[in-house]
Design goal:
elongated, 99 residues, 4 helices, three-stranded mixed β-sheet, alpha+beta
Length: 99
């Protein structure tokens, strides 16, 4: 995805007017478009992004890789902590209050 140029932004009415053309453009050029929807009830406008299937697949892979990395890091930290089983609430409280 090319991020050197700003993402083109459309109002809902302009998006509807040129919907077919815009969707073909996203698919062919692999450049996202943004549709800004007014949010009268709760503050600023909301943005929706239309991205190509290629960009979506890349996003999913990056997200999955990120979560896998986090799981591995948490697992590595947990493996370094000494574990012992106890049901004594005082021992548990002392362990939770350790710095």
């Amino acid at each position: 995805m090319d991020t050197s140029e700003p993402t083109p932004t459309y109002t809902p009415s302009n998006f509807r007017k040129y919907q077919s053309k815009l969707l073909k453009q996203v698919a062919q050029s692999n450049r996202p478009i943004r549709v800004t929807i007014p949010n009268k009830n709760s503050g600023p406008n909301q943005d929706l992004f239309v991205i190509s299937a290629t960009d979506f697949a890349e996003f999913q892979k990056l997200k999955d890789d990120f979560y896998s990395q986090i799981d591995n890091e948490i697992g590595a930290i947990a493996d370094k902590i000494s574990h012992k089983k106890t049901s004594d609430p005082r021992i548990v409280a002392d362990w939770l209050n350790e710095d």
